[in-house]
Amino acid sequence: MDRRSILKALTGGLVFPVVPIAIANAAQKSGKRLILIELQGANDGLNTVVPYKHELYKALRPNIHLQSEEIIPLDEKLALNSSMNSFAEIWDMGELAIVLGLGYPGANRSHFKSIALWETGGDGMRGVENQGWLTEDIIGYSGSTNPDVHGISLDGGMGVFASPKGNWVSMTSIRKFTTLKHHEQIASTVDNPALSLLLDRSNSLNSSMQRISKKLNLSDRYFNVRGGDLGDQFQMALNCIEANINTPVIKLSHGGFDTHENQKRHHNRLLKQLSDAIFDTRKYLIQLDEWDNTIIMTYSEFGRRAYENFNQGTDHGTAAPHFITGGAVEGGFFGKQPSLDKLEDNDLVFTTDYRSVYDSILSAWFSVESNKFKAFRLEDVARIFKV
User: What angle do CA 83, 300, 291 make, to 5 degrees?
Assistant: First the structure.
């Protein structure tokens, strides 16, 4: 196995980012975990959490606005898309937080650039950071921990874990770990610092994947989760949790939200899949006694324009609401709904910096009080968690 073969194997689905040791340590001690769901393509907030009483809502969307029978009122101003009736049940249980008007200064409407900002904690003024938003807390931490892996991607995406260190795996890389079976013998013969570093890293990753594979082989329970491909990803997440795989972060994705045309039908289907998948997962996590240890959070690159376009869809926008749920979540609305009366470039103006949510997760959930998002702290958003 020569150098070229090694490098080919190392790039065959294997990547090496990290979640902070501080978070991994907190997760191992408390059993806490975070499940991230990327809503790929940018979810339309106005037809998800609907300002149904506002007179401009129908005026801005004469063809794609939701009728009274297509919404579930949550209070006197805002309603949930009725396709998310499963979410409405979680809301009634007091375990669904809806954070309104999330965005950032200098909004970028490029899918690629904006999702990179969300996943690294940047904004349109300073640009993309060089590490995932979870990773920087490794700096200066003197403790130690031994998770099976620092993070698991069930969709192959790794941007949120961008970092030069640590062990990160996808389900595809677990299946490929045997391609590195000879690297221990090679490592002792390689006189190349860069290649030796890669081999050392692959050693660590290989060990992690062996532990994960062994544990998964002991888990044969079938979890019936609705929601199409997203439901399949949640089933695998539940298998990992039941198998006692020690990882603080699991990342999933739900695609298809780039609704430039014929939005209504497609969007309603996607929202139903999202809410049904989370509802079913909640049921199983309760059975596993893991619901109180788990939070599930959605994120997306941006929202959609307030005005509908000529194709009965919506174009790239800025602000949008997102969801956080879990047994330790304090249900309700957080942040402020953007005004339909004060649009900029036919678009909503964000009211809540999304990084305040990151601060809340790091400080209130993982007990990492000193994190790089502390400057964005909002007392309202900090109250999302009961802990």
Answer: 65
Q: For 21-69, how does the pLDDT look when each residue is reduced to its tens digit (9 = 90+)?
A: 666 666 666 678 999 999 999 999 999 999 999 999 999 999 999 999 9
Cα 288–chain centre separation: 22
Token representation of residue 350: 């964000």
> What's the predicted TM-score (pTM) here?
0.87
| Domain extent listing, the chain | 3-382
Q: Specify the CATH number of the domain 3-382.
A: 3.40.720
